């Protein structure tokens, strides 16, 4: 349990029938008249839905312990992604639903943050950008600007991104894991 006065960004609260909510932002408000209160923006850990919630100052809220560990993606085992804890070498099987969109950018050896609560995997979080190799793309035709100077390219993970015309098969590029957009070419 924690007081609303102790709230911090990133803290995970257990509210509304044991649902987990992460504090995105909070603000202590002391109006000139009436009691103080805390205005928060909360994000549901599982669904990603964001809500605004107001608490009276000093009210006790239940906190949840979320264990966030950096783990290395090892391999696929059917529909499960197998991650290995680099400190203990324990392996963790994570369902595709918990991995979510991160699956589009995972290759063997990548390090990701795996968040668990009471032994249940909540989500897998990748760094903001990853470097991946272009597995296949058509050669760009100079002068073809009808598509804004981009073309589709298939990454080594099988995910397709839009890249500039000058990118060729076999090149390494940097991709934004949140939006799936091309960021830059990686010079080797």
From TrEMBL:
Keywords: Cytoplasm, Elongation factor, Protein biosynthesis. Residues 68-122 form the Translation elongation factor P/YeiP central domain. InterPro entries: Elong-fact-P_C, NA-bd_OB-fold, Rib_uL2_dom2, Transl_elong_fac_P/YeiP, Transl_elong_KOW-like, Transl_elong_P/YeiP_cen, Transl_elong_P/YeiP_CS, Transl_elongation_fac_P. Its main location: cytoplasm. It is found in: Cytoplasm. Residues 130-185 form the Elongation factor P C-terminal domain. It comes from the Bacteria. Pathway: Protein biosynthesis; polypeptide chain elongation. GO terms for molecular function: translation elongation factor activity. CDD domains: S1_EF-P_repeat_1, S1_EF-P_repeat_2. Belongs to the elongation factor P family. Involved in peptide bond synthesis. Stimulates efficient translation and peptide-bond synthesis on native or reconstituted 70S ribosomes in vitro. Probably functions indirectly by altering the affinity of the ribosome for aminoacyl-tRNA, thus increasing their reactivity as acceptors for peptidyl transferase. This is Elongation factor P. It comes from Streptomyces yaizuensis. The lineage of its organism: Bacteria, Bacillati, Actinomycetota, Actinomycetes, Kitasatosporales.
């Amino acid at each position: 349990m924690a007081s609303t006065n102790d709230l911090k960004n990133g803290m995970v609260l257990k509210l509304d029938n044991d649902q987990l909510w992460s504090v995105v932002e909070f603000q202590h408000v002391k109006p000139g008249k009436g009691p103080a209160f805390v205005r928060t923006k909360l994000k549901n850990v599982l669904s990603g839905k964001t809500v605004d919630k107001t608490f009276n100052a000093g009210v006790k809220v239940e906190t949840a312990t979320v264990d966030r560990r950096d783990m290395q993606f090892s391999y696929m085992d059917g529909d499960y992604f197998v991650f290995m804890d680099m400190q203990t070498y324990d392996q963790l099987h994570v369902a595709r639903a918990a991995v979510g969109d991160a699956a589009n950018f995972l290759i063997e050896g990548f390090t990701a943050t795996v968040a668990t609560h009471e032994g249940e995997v909540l989500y897998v979080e990748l760094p903001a950008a990853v470097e991946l190799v272009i597995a296949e793309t058509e050669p760009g035709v100079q002068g073809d600007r009808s598509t804004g100077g981009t073309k589709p390219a298939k990454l080594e993970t099988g995910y397709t991104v839009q890249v500039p015309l000058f990118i060729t098969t076999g090149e390494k590029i940097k991709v934004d894991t949140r939006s799936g957009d091309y960021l830059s070419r990686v010079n080797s």
